[in-house]
Predict the 3D structure of the following.
Amino acid sequence: MRNICGAIAILAWSSTAMAGASTPVADPIADGKVLVDAYCSDCHVVGRTGESPLPIAPRFRDLNLRYDVEDLSESLVEGIVTAHEAMPEFEFDPIQAAAIIAYLKSLSEPDKNQ
Ligand code: HEC
């Protein structure tokens, strides 16, 4: 847990630093991308292409097909627990959870940036 708290502090710092560098407008999708890159990408493919490093971990871009990703919000805050022990338990604050959801939802929309 201590490591995770440290990582969150660094994340909070780096996303603030990045926001300051370009635009002061909060961008939940970008924040969500930072979070999933940091916490989820060891196992899940988090982008629009490629396969999960851990093949049994679902591609994030497929989660939209399987769930209403809004429903994940509660799980992100209260701790996602899956039947699979390969998936660690996470707890995010509501703002982080909203950012992750925003990012996941963005994957089901046409890509504006590429
Ligand atoms: C250590 C590897 C690992 C990491 C890190 C990881 N996951 Fe997973 N995740 C898995 C595996 C394996 C499954 C498949 C579990 C199963 O089918 O029971 C999974 C399944 C899921 C599912 C689907 C759950 C379901 O009930 O079908 C969601 C949503 C999910 N992960 C979200 C995340 C998020 C969000 C993060 C980052 C905050 C994350 N995962 C990080 C391994 C991981």
Q: What stands out?
A: The pocket of heme C is lined by residues 36, 39-40, 42-44, 54, 56-58, 63, 72, 80, 82-84, 86-88, 90, 100 (CB under 6 Å). The chain has a mean pLDDT of 77. Residues 10 and 46 are 20 Å apart (CA to CA). The two ends are 36 Å apart (CA to CA).
